[in-house]
Amino acid sequence: MRIKFKKSNAPYMLISLVFSLILFFNVNSQNFSRLISSEATYEEVLQNVPINVLYDSDEYFVHGFSSNVSVKLSGANRIQLNREVDQDTRNFSVVADLTKLSSGTHEVHLKTKNLASSLFATIEPETISVTIEKKVKKEFEVSPILSSTTNSSGLEIGQMSVQPEKVEITTGETTMNEIDRVVASVDSSKLTAEQEGIQATVQALSATGEALPIQASPQNVTVNFEIQTPSKEVSLYPIQEGKLPSTIESVKIDLNRSKATITGAQSVIDPIDSIGVPVDVSQLQGTVKKLIDIPIAGNYQVNPKTVNAQVTPVFKKSKETTTSSTDHSSSSTTETTGNPNESSETSETSSTQIMNNQEETTDRSTN
């Protein structure tokens, strides 16, 4: 049996159907929103992500941009996010496509490549400025330079040489014309007296000393150098050590040299003006010569390392020697003085003889 609908009921049925659909989608959309909102969103910020620059490297040389950017990754799939955070398992990369650009400076928009569809990426910065030049190559001699003439240890650097002496420089055509010299810069604070050479990075400098963008082959060279350690002359003086034997009153110590040269860091040797040389006199029996090491009381070297010392003793006088000297002095005094009466008589006789002689001489002159 057929059911006939009146035409007058059709609009009401259509309106009912529309409201039913609205109600259906409204309820399901709320459930879907609850489902989405219930899932956590994870975020990670990756630093120093390298930029993969796409260009014709045989024809062009590009420069003028930072080679790394930061990337913020977000997504609900924690496992996928962790895979991209780890460099060893990372699939995505940041790309700067220059393949359709010619020589000059351009603003290039950065994009991600091979990023999982469940993750979103924000690149900072979003664009980079890139300079494109025609590639050229040329060979240059390398000159070694120092960041300063002395380092923190006070070492002075002498003559330097580079191995290899020449390198091949690759750069842009315009940049090549700006190169004034190619150098290998050495950080003097890293040098020690035990070294003979150090690895240094090759740089190309303009006339104003500005580092220019280049590729060097080889990128590093060996800089050989001589260390010139600061030195000064100091005086030497003897220091008596040990107790003198009982028979010796004092000693005289003579060193065969009065000067020595010390070498070391400037801050170490500056306060030193003299060095005392210890001489042991405890076993002294007579004049001796000794070879003595010059003492070092700090981080420096001394030349020569030894000095000769002659030690001459002054012996004490014994009691027997003193008594004998006293007796001998008394005996000498007695012999000289003798008998006082005999001396007086002798003096009177001599005076009488002188007077008689004078009288005889006077008489003769009168006659």
TrEMBL record:
Biased composition regions of type Low complexity, renumbered to the chain: 321-352
Ranges for region Disordered: 317-367
Matching PANTHER family: CDAA REGULATORY PROTEIN CDAR
Protein known as: CdaR family protein
Species whose genome carries this gene: Enterococcus dongliensis
Species classification: Bacteria, Bacillati, Bacillota, Bacilli, Lactobacillales
